[in-house]
Write a structure and sequence with these properties.
This protein is of the alpha/beta class and 361 residues long. It is 38% helix and 19% strand.
């Protein structure tokens, strides 16, 4: 069978991660750092695409990668309209929403655009895989109690879906036959109930609900939050920073680095131990709630993300949930691999690429 060479692109605010794969084998993985003056000269994030594309091409040339041998290019999915999970072909409707920043401006919006621009010159396919806007929520999961504020699906879809497929494979099942709880534990924490290939419930990991994390507050008492907002002590942006960026571990311990907190605990810091254990406790509670969503029929619980490297932290969670199902641990985010795997399923005819809808029609 022919080997497929795939270029994957994951743009961040100050860096662009790229990978070249021959089927599942890594040929090249590289993080390209961008200096502040390089990106700040552009008024909008989207204006950076030509600059970033050229930097990628220059690095590939320096590394001796002949792009004419590529079979496909895949970019990180951006802030598009809510869509179901899967691998999508980059089309004109998607490009328009990415360029216009339909759901907001973010560096990830550049992924599909750069992939399209490179692929177009080579006459090969351009794709995105499982963007953060993946929405497969059950109707029951959307009801919040306040009609004006429905619950939204914003989570680590790329890593969660990739880990769910990996867990299903380890269980010798297909993803579409599995019932799994997947917990992504990084700067933000999301816990998803995966039922037969769909994430039917998940906490909003951006600034919504769920466990507190290294830098996010998660669910907080709503009445007290309202009082804080109208206390006259804070501007709106300051309250938002308390919820996203300055919440969680950062608020209690002045660090968002879990490794530092683990060292504090090892050196006998009682406050650090209390807060760290509380974060594990809240994650376990959220996993328990997702087991109720799945009616107790759970094939496995998967823990992933950077915090999954912490053996003690994983044990603290596992001791509260192992009665539900076996706990599988897949540390790290592995986003480049996930983008490659999604594209490979298309090239191997295991799946048909999905089409981003033209919402203007």
């Amino acid at each position: 069978m022919r080997t497929h060479r795939i270029l994957v692109i994951n743009p961040g605010s100050t860096s662009t991660k790229i990978g070249v794969f021959d089927d599942e084998d890594v040929v090249l993985e590289k993080t390209i750092r961008h200096q502040p003056d390089e990106v700040n000269q552009y008024k909008r994030v989207i204006d950076q695409y030509e600059f970033r594309k050229q930097v990628i091409l220059d690095v590939l040339d320096q590394e001796g990668i002949n792009i004419s041998k590529l079979s496909a290019v895949c970019g990180r999915g951006g802030l598009l309209r809510p869509i179901e999970g899967g691998t999508y072909e980059v089309n004109n409707a998607m490009l328009e929403d990415l360029r216009n920043g339909y759901n907001g401006e973010h560096a990830s919006n550049l992924g599909g655009i750069i992939a399209h621009e490179i692929a177009k010159g080579l006459n090969i396919g351009a794709y995105i895989v499982d963007p953060v806007v993946v929405d497969e929520l059950h109707d029951l999961a959307r009801v919040s109690g306040v009609p004006e504020i429905p619950r939204k699906s914003i989570f680590h879809a790329l890593n969660q879906k990739a880990v769910a497929r990996r867990a299903a494979k380890d269980l010798q099942q297909s993803y579409k036959e599995s019932r799994l709880i997947v917990t992504h534990m990084g700067g933000g924490i999301t816990v998803g109930a995966h039922a037969n290939g769909r994430v039917i419930d998940v906490n909003n990991g951006l600034h919504g609900d769920g466990p507190f994390s290294p830098e996010r507050a998660g669910t907080v008492p709503a009445g007290d939050l309202v009082s804080l907002c109208f206390s006259g002590q804070y501007y709106r942006d300051e309250v938002m920073k308390k919820l996203v960026g300055q919440g969680g571990l950062m608020a209690y311990l002045d660090t968002n680095d879990a490794r530092e907190v683990e060292k504090m605990v090892e050196h006998g810091d009682k406050k650090a131990k209390l807060v760290f254990d509380a974060m594990a406790y809240q994650i376990a509670k959220e996993i328990g709630s997702m087991s109720a969503v799945l009616e107790g029929k759970v094939d496995a619980i998967a823990l992933t993300g950077g915090l999954a490297y912490g053996k003690g932290f994983v044990e603290e969670i596992s001791k509260r949930i192992h009665w539900i199902a076996d706990v599988l641990v897949y540390p790290g985010e592995n986003e480049l691999e996930a983008l490659n795997e999604g594209t490979l399923r298309i090239l191997n005819n295991e799946e048909v690429p999905k089409q981003y809808p033209n919402f203007a029609e």
